[in-house]
């Protein structure tokens, strides 16, 4: 891996962790910056959003995150550090279900980030898959 790609991979991993924290804290300014205008965000249930729809779902309380734990992240940078493919596993904690049981989702995901010369790193694609609960 080139020095540029290695540096880009570390930068993207840090931004991924910051983005998850921003989704929990509802830091819309940060999320507006890191999601590309042409974002395709595919949830684990198959529902797809663009940037505006997804951010509105957080504002409306349809996408609620009490906590997101990062289990692992792997980043591969390409094109002299201007593109990155990311895959990882997270655990999403949401408000309890109506019967009071915990609402926890174990997720595997892939995302593609592109470094815009003016805007910096931006998520252009997110795809996630819910994993069975460990027994």
From TrEMBL:
<protein>
    <submittedName>
        <fullName>Nuclear transport factor 2 family protein</fullName>
    </submittedName>
</protein>
<dbReference type="Pfam" id="PF14534">
    <property type="entry name" value="DUF4440"/>
</dbReference>
<dbReference type="InterPro" id="IPR027843">
    <property type="entry name" value="DUF4440"/>
</dbReference>
<dbReference type="InterPro" id="IPR032710">
    <property type="entry name" value="NTF2-like_dom_sf"/>
</dbReference>
<feature type="domain" description="DUF4440">
    <location>
        <begin position="13"/>
        <end position="123"/>
    </location>
</feature>
